[in-house]
């Protein structure tokens, strides 16, 4: 019995790391490789073999974590979008006095994060639109995020359905402007872009909410 226990432990632990730890590390390397490749190439030009080579894992380990390449892109996109929203949320004052105090730091932070992480930017905004269902879901999630932060400024809708549509139009419109910027290699002054995005956000939300 003791010998069986020792054998099991040897099989589960390697170089001081458990089987679960090694599995998590492989998954993280696959995700990082995917961000790099999807962020520097067109989606159609990236193969599972390319991703595995970048992660230094075999295809066997790839399929332990992901169904296929579209499944990987979906999960990478979700992970990167959550990273971006966390950064934006952290930049927003707890109790902004005006909509401008809410949107200006949020959108400047968003642009700065994308500018500093161009591969992540392409994963979120350029390759992701290929997944139309996911893209629509992200827009609705982002609209809900905006609604939540607007409540910090005391915003309340005059008309709930119109308010929801306005926020959906806002995030969709901002996304298209950002996609255009990323597609043109992020040329131009990022602060000016953030100011333009802030102006768009203020123009739409001022009509939709009373502060």
UniProtKB/TrEMBL annotation:
<dbReference type="Pfam" id="PF00440">
    <property type="entry name" value="TetR_N"/>
</dbReference>
<keyword id="KW-0238">DNA-binding</keyword>
<feature type="DNA-binding region" description="H-T-H motif">
    <location>
        <begin position="47"/>
        <end position="66"/>
    </location>
</feature>
<dbReference type="InterPro" id="IPR036271">
    <property type="entry name" value="Tet_transcr_reg_TetR-rel_C_sf"/>
</dbReference>
<dbReference type="GO" id="GO:0003700">
    <property type="term" value="F:DNA-binding transcription factor activity"/>
</dbReference>
<dbReference type="InterPro" id="IPR009057">
    <property type="entry name" value="Homeodomain-like_sf"/>
</dbReference>
<dbReference type="InterPro" id="IPR001647">
    <property type="entry name" value="HTH_TetR"/>
</dbReference>
<protein>
    <submittedName>
        <fullName>AcrR family transcriptional regulator</fullName>
    </submittedName>
</protein>
<feature type="domain" description="HTH tetR-type">
    <location>
        <begin position="24"/>
        <end position="84"/>
    </location>
</feature>
<feature type="region of interest" description="Disordered">
    <location>
        <begin position="1"/>
        <end position="26"/>
    </location>
</feature>
<dbReference type="InterPro" id="IPR050109">
    <property type="entry name" value="HTH-type_TetR-like_transc_reg"/>
</dbReference>
<feature type="compositionally biased region" description="Basic and acidic residues">
    <location>
        <begin position="9"/>
        <end position="26"/>
    </location>
</feature>
<dbReference type="GO" id="GO:0000976">
    <property type="term" value="F:transcription cis-regulatory region binding"/>
</dbReference>
């Amino acid at each position: 019995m003791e010998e069986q226990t020792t054998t099991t432990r040897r099989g589960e632990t390697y170089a001081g790391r458990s089987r679960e730890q090694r599995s998590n590390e492989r998954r993280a390397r696959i995700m990082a490789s995917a961000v790099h490749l999807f962020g520097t190439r067109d989606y159609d030009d990236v193969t599972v073999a390319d991703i595995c080579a970048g992660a230094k894992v075999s295809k066997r380990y790839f399929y332990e974590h992901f169904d296929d390449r579209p499944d990987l892109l979906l999960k990478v996109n979700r992970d990167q979008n959550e990273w971006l929203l966390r950064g934006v949320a952290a930049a927003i004052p707890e109790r902004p006095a005006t909509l401008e105090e809410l949107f200006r730091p949020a959108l400047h932070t968003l642009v700065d994060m994308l500018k500093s992480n161009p591969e992540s930017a392409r994963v979120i905004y350029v390759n992701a639109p290929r997944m139309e269902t996911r893209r629509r879901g992200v827009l609705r999630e982002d609209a809900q995020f905006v609604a939540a932060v607007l409540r910090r400024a005391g915003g309340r809708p005059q008309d709930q359905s119109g308010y929801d549509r306005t926020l959906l139009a806002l995030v969709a419109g901002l996304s298209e402007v950002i996609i255009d910027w990323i597609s043109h290699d992020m040329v131009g002054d990022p602060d000016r872009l953030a100011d333009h995005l802030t102006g768009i956000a203020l123009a739409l939300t001022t009509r939709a909410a009373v502060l």
